[in-house]
User: Fold this.
Amino acid sequence: MERVSDRQTFEKKNNFTALAEKLLDIEWERVARAELSGSSVGIQKNRLDAHVLPFFRYIPPTQVTHVDLDGFVSRLTQHGLSSTTISQYFVLVRKLLKLAIRQGLLKEVPEFPKIKVVTQPRSMLSLKEYSQLARTALRMSRTQVVSPELKSTQGQRERFWVAPRNRLLAPDMFWAIRFMANSFVRPGDLRQLKHKHVTVVRGQNVYLRMNLPETKKHDKPMVTMQAAVGVYESLLRHQKAQGFGGPDDYLFLPAENDRNYALAVLGFWFKWVMREAGLATTDEKNRPKTLYCLRHTSIMFRLLYGQGIDMLSLARNARTSVQMIERFYASSLDGEMNVAMIQSRRSGKTSK
Assistant:
């Protein structure tokens, strides 16, 4: 009887569903120790549900071979995932198989396929496009343009839809465009940014100091360009007239308690304004221009137009790394963008 019981226990553990549940428990313990963010665990769960478990559900971990792993690459490729995303999926699969080793199911992890990660820099706006976008958003909010209806509000809604109250463009879109282009924040920061996180600093330099909640293991304050101060003060005046603007009120769409919905509305508005401005919604490499491209634009403007920019300071203030700046931002630079800097000469020197 004892051998049968041991065998049943082994078989109960020898499946990816059980491993996934155990892994998520471990990851949530890391969140409790502040070693990991809750959003990271959410991403892992989404990936488990989307592709990992559907593919490996009926394959015991003890029987996984390189052939199965190659098959998983094929599945992800057929679903149109990038090499970067496929590589991230395999990080998760490796975690599961290492957990299987710790639980005595495996002796070693099988050979993994080699995935060549191809860097895809995010799209950005030129200075002309940015100005045109901001002007269009301001005009649309003042003239009360109504958006096209995405979906009927009747029946079951499985995907994002726009409520009637959000079919008129609010001034929040104009402010969000200018704020992001002058503050380096991610769209996810807009979702959770409250007035208590923002301090106006007026001294030798004028800027906003933002003590944002931790994102991607970065928790240091961020500082903005001076233009962001005027944006913030304008939206604060407007919000106070509407009964908002308190320390715990959000900067953008403060009336929306569902912050995921609020961010989705900003994303919808951004695409709408891009079309109304006559701007392409993809770049020359067919990369989509989403709300996130305003962060890219903000960083690129500093690289292009800032004087003596220190890459480390820029990276830390943008809550990223120098390596990420070089891979996803500076990699988009070409010689013609900074021809004046390339042709510049040190003072006191004469050309020969």
About this structure: Confidence is low (pLDDT under 50) at residues 152-158. The two ends are 95 Å apart (CA to CA). Strands lie at 198-202, 206-210, 222-223. DSSP finds 14 helices and three strands in the chain.
